[in-house]
Amino acid sequence: MAKRILADQCWGVVIDVQDFFLAQLGNRALRTRIETNLLNFARLLAYFRIPLVATLERPVFRKGRVPQRLKRLGETAQVFEKDFFDLTKEKKIADHLGRLGRRQALVAGCETDVCVLQSCLGLLELGHEVYVIEDLLFSSARNVEAAIARMRAEGAILLSYKTLFYELIAAVEGGPHAEKMSATYGPFPDDLPDSARR
Questions:
Q1: CATH (residue range 10-193)
Q2: What is the pLDDT of residues 44-75, one digit of tens each?
Q3: How many alpha carbons fall within 13 Å on the CB side of residue 138?
């Protein structure tokens, strides 16, 4: 049965977007694009009042906090430090997710083949529907196809930011509540990432 992403049932997570991991990208243009796209993701979720969680891998003094350019992300998200690759193994994070009471997880961050993969597996084990936004992932590894295949095989749904963007607005655009939403939240942000504009 096809499932739809519902704003009142989902929450977002940005996994370990820290200077240590961003620096491994090597390509400044790629880093800038990822940072911009993650900020747009945070704005999109804020527009729909979808809770956002950000994780920082320890030791934070070595790997860094939320980068300065992404400071707004740190202000809109509930930020947690973690020692495990799988964020669900951290009691504070697991307790927070339980209090949210939402079962659809929108996943972004790094590294695709380590913390993102392990966190997706943990979320699936807890009964979450897991939606992985492919163009909001990155890794120091060049080949992450095996990790993507594993996530898919275990039940994670991969989609693009563009797909998420339009699926969330489809419920309100032209609907009976669209005018009320526009009056309440302002005009919808035009924030499709560079990769979605091709």
A1: 3.40.50.850
A2: 898 889 999 999 999 999 999 888 878 777 67
A3: 23
